[in-house]
Amino acid sequence: MCGKFNISQGIDLEEIKKSPEVAEENIIGIEELFSNSGQVSLNARKLELFLNGVMLTEIKEDGIYRVYSDDKFIGLGIVKNDLLKRDIIL
Description:
By secondary structure, the protein is of the alpha+beta class. Helix content is about 30%, strand content about 30%. Strand 3 and strand 4 form a beta hairpin.
């Protein structure tokens, strides 16, 4: 078990090779993978800065956060010492 995911949910590589649609039907998106992480919402200006690599002040506990703008999932960010920096952008 890893978080809310269990090995029984896994798919054998041979099964995927035989039937690629099995993988497509069972792909877990990054947003779902990090669903237990907190989230940060950015307005348009902060989003532009964030995407350009500017670290933003974000008073939250250190950790990984899902980043949203206008309720759209943008990717992941990391807060450390009250600064948010981009990690994975979709």
